[in-house]
Specification:
Layout: H1 2-17, E1 23-24, H2 25-31, H3 33-36, H4 41-57, E2 63-66, E3 72-75, H5 90-100, H6 107-121, H7 129-135, H8 149-158, E4 162-166, E5 175-187, E6 190-197, E7 202-207, E8 211-217, H9 229-240, E9 244-253, H10 258-263, E10 266-271, E11 274-282, H11 285-290, E12 296-300, H12 302-317
Antiparallel strand pairs: 1-3, 2-3, 4-5, 4-8, 5-6, 6-7, 9-11, 9-12, 10-11
Helix pairs in contact: 1-4, 5-6
Length: 318
């Protein structure tokens, strides 16, 4: 089926590129075998519209023209579908190649690979060996394991409200949230969605790994203004615990909690297989500490200790 569709798309693209005048749907149906085999006019129309949309998504510029008789025709002018000269040097080409390798999963992996192939076909230079060797020791990856990532990415792009079930770290059951999604941010190995929570009438940040079930799209426009990218990014960092307003003192089991050790302002041996750390304390630290389970004990402040205990009790209750 995939081969048949690829052949059909190629034939349609060749017809549209090879004509000097707009071709009607009737003419295109008579020129492409797969359209002739379509059972009924409705089936052909649906197939043609899907194919036309697919070609446009692949980057083909298709014009719709109405002739003097009112008949609609289609063509793809060569001058509108010709890339300008690529003027990248080897290091710029290498940077693009490196960026295309970042995505491992989700829809962006294919998009990045396809974009790179188009640029190379248009004359983008290959990276020099010296540059590749210099940067080959480290190769970046952005893993995307959450099923919610792709529908939320598309909803952010298309400015579509969404509904999903979300389980907070200290909650036993998920709650339904109606959200106007703004952007996705990766922070400390986890993906977060920043957006406007309609039920609460305020901006919120949601960790994708806590979204349960399917993300459902909703019709209609956004009701709240979308802030600029910098503000959204700062919101994500603040809600995830990046913005620290004070310090916390914790006990950490020796040989564990390396992410906490990396952020620590000071570390000293506490004896009996424990270390004592001073770490930045911001919004969301309680949720992060809970992830380390029995390897972490909060000493102070008291409100942070209480929040961690409450979260652990909620988890224990299931």
């Amino acid at each position: 089926m995939a081969i048949a569709k690829a052949e059909r798309l190629m034939n349609l693209a060749l017809c549209l590129l090879g004509t000097r005048r707009p071709l009607s749907k009737r003419e295109l149906r008579g020129s492409i075998e797969a359209y002739l085999e379509a059972t009924g006019e409705d089936a052909f129309n649906r197939m043609f519209e899907r194919d036309k949309d697919d070609l446009r998504e692949l980057g083909l510029v298709i014009e719709t023209v109405e002739n003097l008789d009112g008949e609609i025709g289609y063509l793809a002018r060569r001058d509108s579908n010709r890339l300008p000269a690529i003027t990248l040097d080897a290091e710029e080409a290498a940077a693009l190649g490196l960026a295309a390798k970042v995505w491992q999963q989700a829809r962006l992996a294919g998009a990045a690979s396809g974009a790179l192939q188009k640029l190379r076909a248009a004359g983008m230079p290959e990276a020099e060996d010296s540059y590749d060797v210099q940067h080959s020791a480290l190769e970046p990856r952005i893993p995307v394991h959450e099923a919610a990532f792709e529908p939320l990415m598309l909803a952010c792009r298309d400015r579509r409200p969404v509904v999903f079930d979300y389980r907070k770290a200290n909650a036993a059951r998920p709650e339904t949230r109606q959200v106007e999604p703004w952007t996705l941010e990766c922070w400390r190995g986890h993906w977060y969605l920043a957006g406007w929570d309609r039920d609460r009438g305020a901006e919120r940040v949601f960790r994708l790994s806590r979204i349960t079930g399917r993300v459902r799209s909703r019709a209609g426009a956004f009701t709240a203004p979308v802030p600029d990218v910098v503000t959204v990014r700062e919101t994500v960092e603040s809600w995830a615990g990046e913005t620290a307003t004070r310090s916390a003192r914790i006990r950490l089991r020796s040989g564990s909690g390396y992410p906490l050790r990396a952020r620590a302002q000071s570390v000293r041996e506490g004896g009996d297989g424990w270390d004592e750390l001073e770490i930045p304390y911001g919004h969301g630290l309680d949720a992060w500490l809970v992830e380390f389970g029995p390897d972490v004990v909060v000493l102070e402040p008291a409100d942070l200790r209480a929040d961690v205990v409450e979260r652990l009790r909620a988890v224990a209750k299931g």
